[in-house]
Amino acid sequence: MAGVPLLDPVAGAVVSMMIVKAGAEISWDAAKQLTDTAPDAHVMDSIRRELDAMQPDGVRSWSHLRARWTGPLAMVDLHVVVDSQASVSAAHTIAERVRSTLISRVNHIGDVAVHVDAEPEVRMMLMLLLVLLLCCSWCCSY
Prior knowledge:
By secondary structure, the protein is of the alpha+beta class. It has a domain at 41-124: Alpha-Beta Plaits. Helix content is 55%, strand content 21%. The chain has a three-stranded mixed beta sheet with strand order 1-2-3, covered by helices on one side. A hairpin with a 2-residue loop joins β1 (61-70) and β2.
């Protein structure tokens, strides 16, 4: 190479390192896609903002938010709490609205699995607390 015999092996080594680097980067990206990595904080914050905005529309609260990349799209799982007196049909409508809103408003979401939980009834919780207090007071009196 240019009359300098040492340059040929050096140029070959440089080209070889560039090929190895490109191969490692491609392998790393493929491994991340195959192992379902989590979306970055920007995507998760966008999802949280949309969920918080939905709370007046039948969603009492939400929890268990998880997301993962599957190829170029994010798959989202979450739980929403709805009124305990809501019918199954109404709860399904709320879940479908949550799903379609997230898919349409947050970029790169492929699908959303919404698990619906009924809001715990306050009366039942108060009755259980009363029974617990009565049992404790009865046990302590002996």
